[in-house]
Amino acid sequence: MSPEQPARRSAPTRRGVLKGVGAGAFAAASLGVLPLFSTPDRTQNPNTCTTRDLSNVDHSLDVSNWPIYIDQDTKKRQSTMTDFEKRYGINVTYNEDVNDNVEFFGKVVNQLGSCQTTKRDLFVLTDWMAARMIKMGWIQKHDPGSVPNLDKNLLSSLRHVNWDPKREYSAPWQSGFAGIAYNKKLVKQEVRTVDELLTRSDLRGRVTLLAEMPDTMGLVLLSDGKDPSSFSNSDFEQGVEKVKKARDSGQIRAFTGNEYVNDLLAGNVLACFAWSGDVASYSNIEFVVPEEGMMIWSDNMLIPNLAAHKANAEKWINYYYEPAVAAQLAAYVNYVCPVEGAQQAMEKIDKSLVDNPLIFPTPDYLKQTHSFMGMTEPQVRLFEGEFNDVAGA
Amino acid sequence: MAATEVTETPAPVVAPDAGKRRSLTGYVLILPAAVWLGLFFVVPFYSLLANSLFDPNGSVLTGYKVTYHFANFWHALSDYHGPLLRSLWYAGVATAICLVIGYVLAYAIAMKAGRWKNVLLVLVVAPFFTSFLLRTLSWKLILGDNGWVVNTLQAVHVLGSNGRLLATPVAVIAGITYNFLPFMVLPIYASLEKVDGRLIEAAGDLYASPIRAFGKVTLPLSMPGVVGGTLLTFIPAAGDYINAALLGSPNQRMVGNVIQDLFTTTGDYAAAGALSVILMVIILALVVFYVRKSGTEELL
């Protein structure tokens, strides 16, 4: 705007011209320095971005996991982690600092993207984020033969994900279902389908969906008769439109993380999309498999580039794939146990959980589950963007 | 400042040298503030500007390049004018409510509170002892669908039997009003406190009614506080996203929420940067307009 200043006067003064030129030069210089703020390409190669493995010298291990996701020492039984530490003489630093895939991504993107250490040997992230990191070359393969229990005991339905077809980079820590939950005390008529949840007038304004895009959109895609593991952009847009319609009609109250549990118990929310493990232990809450099917996801253990104790991390993975250990963990967290044989081992720990399909799903039960497709970077942007325009809050 | 410098160094100094030192002193003294502003305002500002001109086809992972893609602004405006206008609307309403409540409160504290003045001031500031987030979360409990507020309002038929407060514009505006009220009260209090009581007496002596005396004396003298208070309330309120996130629903999404989502979840830095710059420009324009007006009688 300054360059026009002199023109406003009838005769441009010397000072006015100088001012204009100065402002113009400043603006040009300002625009000129902007490219300095470009962000770098963060692709790495795990074969070249390496470091010496200190596992044999330094008997320690740094793990980052989600909160309340591991059993604790009690008077009756020592925790799996204590047992691991004693058995292998490894000192574990266990951090509960993964609250959200996107937030954790923000914590490590600068280090992993420029081949610097995250000071972590292992962290746990959900499928789509794990897929993204593997694709970026931020995650190391397991050493051949280092995790025999994983190769032997991983549930067959979890073995072949399209973003890690041979499970060379990842190992599920726990899996879970995303389906519908409702408050039995306050809702008289069962909520059986996603369409009911999104349109029934007795639920108006008392419905929440999950902010985690793959879970919510997976369920919506299923309700439209689409396959969440392979769908087109227009299928997705149609699904988003459906959610938007429900939102605009005032049916949906919020898109949430784990906090929906409190609202569901308090009655602020009557029915919602929910994660199986969150609601498995409440008697007031009913978890429903929608008639069109539900979503299955896993949180995966990943070993990042430059992990200083890779061999120790592999021992950890291998240890948690022992059926007895997996059973003890599952008894505490109530999510789907990804380890074959843990069901038999559970007999000795807690008989009441052996036949719980939310922890040990039968093959028939698993037939109703679907997983979300691994997305490319442009797809992440497109789908997350479209979803957030409707769901963001 | 410069004068004390000279008196503190009584040793005879050659004149040009003294002049040099004097001018240097000023620069040295300004240095900490300049470094602070440079690091924490200028650099982030340029970074934001760069974001707004990124090539929108980049991504967080494969990198963003500055391509002077000015169309970002247009796209951001056409995609997100809804939340943008909503933010200005909510912030405006909340500021107006704050002004009414805040002025009365500040007036009472400054003019009528007597020995309770300090206690009341502490009470105004007391909420700051707890975190912003916690206070907003506790409103979520108070306004909950099965809480006593909603139940009472339903019982007296202010709300329908299925009515609610949470996840409505009312809750969001109330939350903003509550959270920013002290920013309105304190500046107004500071100006009212300075009003010379004798002027009001003089107005009375000249047969002005109390209302007229207030309009002609007290109110004009408190205008600096009103202007300061409205700015301190409106500017952060327009960019606020906590209240909309915790007390609202997606239908109450404000521009701050959109920007946060674009930066974090979607990773669309170009749109996020463009929207941030647009918000800054709009607020700046409104503030300049307001401050110019408020210097004249027009605002009254």
Defining key terms:
heterodimer; A: 393 residues; alpha/beta; D-Maltodextrin-Binding Protein, domain 2; 2 domains; ten-stranded mixed sheet; 16 helices; 10 strands; 15% strand; globular; B: 300 residues; mainly alpha; MetI-like fold; disordered N terminus
List the helices and strands and how they pair.
The complex is a heterodimer of chains A (393) and B (300).
Chain A: H1 5-8, H2 14-33, E1 60-64, H3 80-88, E2 91-95, H4 101-113, E3 122-126, H5 127-135, H6 148-153, E4 170-183, H7 194-199, E5 207-210, H8 213-223, H9 233-248, E6 252-256, H10 260-266, E7 271-275, H11 276-279, E8 285-288, E9 294-302, H12 310-320, H13 323-333, H14 342-346, H15 363-367, E10 369-370, H16 377-391
Parallel strand pairs in A: 1-2, 1-3, 5-6, 5-7, 9-10
Antiparallel strand pairs in A: 3-9, 4-7, 4-8, 4-9
Helix pairs in contact in A: 9-16
Chain B: H1 2-8, H2 15-52, H3 71-112, H4 117-125, H5 132-142, H6 148-155, H7 169-194, H8 197-205, H9 210-239, H10 242-247, H11 255-266, H12 269-294
Helix pairs in contact in B: 2-12, 3-7, 3-9, 3-12, 7-9, 8-9, 9-12, 11-12
Explain this structure.
The complex is a heterodimer of chains A (393) and B (300). Chain A has 16 helices and ten strands. Chain A is α/β, with parallel strands linked by helices. Chain A has two domains: 179 residues, Periplasmic binding protein-like II (D-Maltodextrin-Binding Protein, domain 2, 3-Layer(aba) Sandwich); 135 residues, D-Maltodextrin-Binding Protein, domain 2. In chain A, α3 links the parallel β1 and β2. Chain A is globular. The mean pLDDT of chain A is 91. Chain B has 300 residues and is mostly helical. Chain B has two domains: 48 residues, no CATH class; 219 residues, MetI-like (MetI-like fold). Helices cover 75% and strands 0% of the residues of chain B. Chain B has twelve helices and no strands. The longest helix of chain B has 42 residues. The two termini of chain B are 39 Å apart. The interface between A and B is large, with 45 and 44 residues.
